[in-house]
Amino acid sequence: MPKDGGIGASSKRREDVRFLTGTGNYTDDINLRGQAYVHFLRSDVAHGRLEKVDTTDAEGMPGVIRVFTGADFEGVGGIPCGWQVTDRFGEVMQEPAHPVLAQGKVRHVGDPIAAVVAETREQARDAAEAIVLDIEELPAVVDMKAALEDGATKVHDDLTSNLCYDWGFVEENKAAVDEAFGKAAHVTSLELVNNRLIANPMEPRVAVGDYNRASDESTLYTTSQNPHVIRLLMGAFVLGIPEHKLRVVAPDVGGGFGSKIYHYAEEAFCTFAARALNRPVKWTSTRSEAFMSDAHGRDHVTKIELALDADNNFTALRTDTHANMGAYLSTFAPCVPTWLHGTLMAGNYKTPLIYVNVKAVFTNTVPVDAYRGAGRPEATYQLERVIDKAARELGVDPIALRRQNFITEFPYATPVAVEYDTGDYHATMDKLEEIADIKGFAARRTESEKRGKLRGLGVNCYIEACGIAPSNLVGQLGARAGLYESATVRVNATGGLTVMTGSHSHGQGHETTFAQVIAEMIGIDADQVDIVHGDTARVPMGMGTYGSRSLAVGGSAMVRATEKIINKARKIAAHLMEASEGDIELKDGQFTVAGTDKSVAWGDVTLAAYVPHNYPLEDIEPGLEETAFYDPANFTYPAGAYACEVEVDPETGRVTIERFAAADDFGNVVNPMIVEGQVHGGLAQGIGQALLEGCAYDENGQLLTGSYMDYAMPRADDVPFYHVDHSCQTPCTHNPLGVKGCGEAGAIGSPPAVVNAVVDALRTGGSNITHIDMPLSPSRVWQAMQG
Amino acid sequence: MYAFEIDRPTTLADAVKALGAEESQALGGGQTLIPALKARLAAPARLVALSGVDEIKGICTADDGALCIGGGTSHADVAKGAGAYPALASLAANIGDPAVRNRGTIGGSLANNDPSACYPAAVLASGATVVTTNRQIAADDFFDGMFATALEDGEIITEVRFPVPEKASYQKFDQPASRFALVGVFVAKYPDGVRVAVTGASEDGVFRWSEAEAALSSDFSAGAVEGLSLSGDGMISDLHGSGEYRAHLVGVMTRRAVAAAG
Amino acid sequence: MPEVSMTVNGKPAKGQIEGRTLLVEFIRDNLGLTGTHVGCDTSQCGACVVHVDGRAVKACTIFAAEAEGAEVKTIEGMAEPDGTMHPIQAAFQDHHGLQCGFCTPGMVMSAAALLAENPTPTEAEIRDYLEGNICRCTGYHNIVKAIMAASGQDVSRVAAE
What we know:
heterotrimer, A: alpha+beta, Aldehyde Oxidoreductase, domain 4, Aldehyde Oxidoreductase, domain 3, five-stranded mixed beta sheet, 19 helices, 28% helix, globular, C: alpha+beta, Ubiquitin-like (UB roll), 2 domains, 5 helices
């Protein structure tokens, strides 16, 4: 192994030094000469007709450069949606226009109406207050089921209704599923809400648009997880700027969790305004703005039914979900409740028949899109809750019921279109029982009871589909993009490497782990390898980071490019040592000829590539730089088992997490320290969803949780130390590293464990409660206990 | 924020003078006012920062044994320096977070009278006296409903005098997001009786729970308030809890406070 | 426009400000010290924590004018002049106490204030002290561990039992 860490080493993160010393370069740290500032005037009503937007007074205010309204964007494209879902009747989804600034109507609190560009932030905000609005307020559409009733107010007048699509999956199985329910020995059903969340990366979004009149090039600095995707969407669909005239840079990004995947109006505005005004235009979101302009997550209302035979085998599963799209379709919104949700409904179980129905609904709320896990947490939550409920109804051990129904043979083709390549669910459950000390639970419960507390244990499994995704498959499913990844490996004459990856790190540590992989492959020290990401001018077309795809897809592209490098270097080495290429071996940065003591160092080969005096010029070109695009053959399927122990204060309803254990199978692991960190973060977000977080609107579409005063973020004292383990490893069979992805697991697997644990605790307190909707706040738990 | 000028007097007299100007507003620690200014919920022409007025900072004991805390004393300094009144020190040590406690002041908190703030419960339960630049105001006369007090324009809280009880405890049940009190109950036992003050719960702001006071004055034990209950009517009802829930918590927190007071 | 002067990381600093200029704006915009971050507008996230006269303060909730004459320390002032990281910074790297890095400066400054008050805090004391510092990435596990390690405590058995 390289001395500073190859594959499998918990190398310290190299990016940490700049973050720890205050020398990171986040988008808000970028200030361009002559920049102006934009303030967006946002709607404070959920739904209304824009009768008048009078900017006359505002234009005369001090420092104001120009005031833009929706009228300035007529003839300019709208914010596009990247996925088209086809419904159960073969029709494509309803897809409304999404103007950069509101035209005709406002459709959610926070919808931008006008944009004031001024010399200072405060001047822009002062002038925004001088804009005179005349808005005819319309009834707000908030509740999804009410939105679908006949005669309901329409969010979009030009659509036939508020239904985006009615999706059935697998539609051909519907009759067989219904028939299986008819024959079931036992049916457990559960109605639940997967609560709306707000991603809340700690860095609010920022956009800085710049324009170079001499070269006619636009540059956008933005807080994005995928700068190339922004360049493509904004250039081609919104502003009509060809990609060779548009550069998008996402420098250090302070967390994303999905919310920084999407192309947002503010990005398009700053780029547009910089061209129009010929000077840089900067927007920095306040946290209050973030609450009403960042895409939200989750927000499903589901009825799930599980059919079992007399031996407690799962025979069929049927779900009916309403999924909130919000007022417009965010970039990947339509695929979240469908292809990222329905395809995971088999979970870890060999249920032979599954039917999923999803109705996606427009409402006068902020658009909803993927948030850490995206669709898979929703699938896992409902499935693992209904299994837990079934176990209690049947009087069987919840772990035993799960084990009895585990998939045990791989590859396994589920009835919901995906094929799991590998896994070992008993192994992760065995590991969980060990690290969670399930055997010791009874004693801990007794101890809690002595202190007047109710203690509960909740266990669940999860599976996710990561490494998104095979392009030809997702194309059939409605994706309007490919989902490959790219890497360029540039070897310098003196042997160091610069690797340009299309993946993007916003906390995941790519600069460290990606370098570890290359160091391992070549046998050099990782500090010889520099990882570059986040700049379309430096990196080949890439699809970015989300869906736990960086190492599985981006890392694979990098491996492929490095293999090309090594193959070429081997040819050069063979020439230098006058040996046959087939006899050349590479180990520890030395090329050797098998069976001889001949060797040539990596650095000699790289030098020869750029100073080709003694070089096989007739066979290969000089230089040592290769690019690879990797398109995965399948998804990857990380899986695991989680356990949570809670205490409930029966007097107040307050729930505390006493223990949390996670046994994950991520396949091979490059940097265990980083993998564990990813799981920790996911667990906190899942615990946050289960106990604390819930975005709420009132019946008028006013956001009730518009700041950290009302949206409860998990803090250090809300969570315990976690017991995490990733020693169960069934490597992915179809990518070169055998990795599966670890970024979302914690957030996917943890909410059901928490809720299962609370229900368990309340039952020991004599309650017959079978379910409480998240977040399990003290008041909700107490209310439920009142019966 | 709207534009304003900021004054930073170093004497109380200068502060009073500065506050005499039109549209002037006092700035204590700013931990509530500054976020409100950011949201453009207030538009003062001039802020008079009291952070430089050393004469209203500090803690001492009066001849009658009362603990006197300067209006400009930070929560952190009360937490450290109010050892003579442990329940009060403990309350101060759990307001907000450490950085907030380093800036926020007792005078600022009382003048703002947020219905979920902690200090009003201590002042009311202790029967403290609020000393201002103009006068002395008894706790029972000071609080005047949510965000309202007996203070007049330009009046600055210079000191709060707390009679030290025989036993006392403050029990706070956090609102999960803001960590303000969803319900906070301060119980203080004096030779002449027990006072119980409740914050966070009522639409009218901090209040005394007289029924509990009567019961505890005759029997200072958690059991004495076991059967007592408050109505949810008039209690704050929001995302974080119904009026009924808050009323229930008042009972729970009162019992716990009595038990903790010992 | 009034002028303010203070000492920042041991060096004199002054600049023109408005009444409404926050200390964090002065630090970031006037001084170009962009390590101090702004993550919210309700004084809760703690990304902006700096030390003013030795005390942890949210730089977004104090006006620059109020720091007149004060000794201010920001994240940029934590490492040694030769670049050697402060033991708390080193512990955050050793124990992976940061991911995206955005909350990190505030976390480090809060941790430094905690250890100055309480040199060997318990796990519970650390978690309590961090109430005003929100991290969305780490789940706090490794932050708490890093602070324990920085205080000289053995963390090899954390969550291992």
